[in-house]
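Sequence only, no structure available. Ideas?
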Amino acid sequence: MALDDESVDEGGPEDRAEDDAAAAVQRSRAGKHDSMRAADLERVTDYVEEAEILSQNIGDAMKVVSDRQMKEANEKQLKENELSRVKVNKEDVDLVVNEMEVSRNVAERLLREHRGNVFDVLVSLTN
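Reply:
I predicted one. Tokens follow.
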């Protein structure tokens, strides 16, 4: 039994110093890991905040695009209404179709855009 008592050593000052050094290293590592975890958490929250901002920006951009499309559609409708009021002669349409070899729809549209002026239509088709 005497051998057993001697083999159990509670540790001298050197062993305690080594244990203290090892504990300090572990605390240092834990502190380093904690700071890395905090930085990772900060990145995640930054990403979420950016995503919220981006979704708001996307909503605003979609509203702008939608408003622009509505405005263009209204302008197109107004132009079509204005063109439909212009009277064109059947002889003028036939002349443009025969001379420039375009369809009746194209000839009629061009005559309406040029307010029935055959000369302007023929010039625009040749340029």
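Residues 1-9 have pLDDT under 50 and may be disordered.
Hope that gets you unstuck.
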